């Protein structure tokens, strides 16, 4: 496993998966996932350190600090899709087992 | 700008200034979002969460460095050398604790200059009494399993105590 997939990490990956080609802001991710900054940023840091996310700075209006933006790398997108598929397959097989045993 | 937002701004600016290079970019990222947060209290909660995230990032960097170092030393060093490294690690941990206490006191003094936290009894409490108590408790807990680390911690505790005693005697 490349990164520890806590429920919060899965939430963040799902948020990126909605529009994988778009750059996203930290605060928008926080609002979309419902995660506080103290939870969200360690996840973003970990994903960026594992090269699953790329980052860039966006220049804001004069007098305002620049904003940091995040997007999947191609490796990150591949990894997340693979994880998502295996998770869905796992859930399907659990459901099938439950049906058989019922 | 309300007081909570002003505090949030100051806290994040202090983090950008004080954070090590590896964490500074993230502190700047958190500061960059502050203007877009609606509500002063939400901004303050954002800054507090961000400060916790930066502290965790710094701590994980230190932990990684110590683990790498320990693993490397394990292979290369004989028993006596290993013990010396453990004493050093204990001393280093104790010094980092004192450094953190001093840093927090400085940040609090920057954020709330009116309280005068960097002077008087609060300074002694933060940089002497609390660390010394932690050193003694830590040394007792570690003594059986990690004696050399406990010895390193106690050494720094003793040196700090001596330093304060000399300081008081000279006044």
Note down, in words, how this protein is organized.
The complex is a heterodimer of chains A (102) and B (171). With 102 residues, chain A is an alpha+beta fold. Chain A has a single domain, classed as Arc Repressor Mutant, subunit A, CATH 1.10.10.10. Helices cover 60% and strands 14% of the residues of chain A. Chain A has a three-stranded antiparallel beta sheet with strand order 1-3-2. Chain A starts with 6 loop residues before the first helix and ends with a helix. Chain B folds into two domains: 76 residues; 94 residues. In chain B, 85% of the residues lie in helices and 0% in strands. The longest helix of chain B has 37 residues. The radius of gyration of chain B is 19 Å and the shape is flat. Chain B starts with a helix and ends with a helix. At the A-B interface, helix 2 and helix 3 of A face helix 2 and helix 3 of B.
